[in-house]
Design a protein that fits this description.
The protein contains 2 helices and 5 strands. By secondary structure, the protein is α+β, with helices and mostly antiparallel strands. It has a domain of 49 residues: Single Sheet (Rubrerythrin, domain 2), CATH 2.20.28. A 3-stranded antiparallel beta sheet has the order 3-4-5, with no helix packed on it. The protein has a two-stranded antiparallel ribbon with strand order 1-2. A hairpin with a 6-residue loop joins strand 3 and strand 4. The radius of gyration is 27 Å and the shape is rod-shaped. The protein starts with a strand and ends with a helix. About 7% of the residues have low confidence.
């Protein structure tokens, strides 16, 4: 029988049979939701929800869209005037 170790409470408990990588199990000591990371040796880690799994949209901010709209204090006209002066 394999033994599992909880990363949350460091408790030791018998691992369920027929585990698969990616399977979620619950620690019987602290009720932490864990995910099987490796089978040999058996390694568990905290189970995290994937983004958007619960139907929510990704709220991350894309700064690249705003980058072109930022005013850096120089206009294209200023550049053209400088080029004309050099000639």
């Amino acid at each position: 029988m394999k033994v599992a170790f909880c990363p949350e409470c460091e408790g030791e408990f018998p691992a369920p049979l027929n585990l698969k990588v990616g399977q979620h199990i619950t620690c019987p000591h602290c009720d932490a939701e864990l995910e099987v990371i490796h089978l040999i040796p058996l390694e568990l880690d905290w189970a995290f929800d994937e983004p958007g799994v619960d139907g929510e949209e990704d709220d991350s901010v894309d700064d690249q869209d705003d980058w072109d709209d930022q005013d850096d204090g120089e206009d294209e006209e200023d550049w053209e005037d400088e080029e004309d002066e050099e000639l």
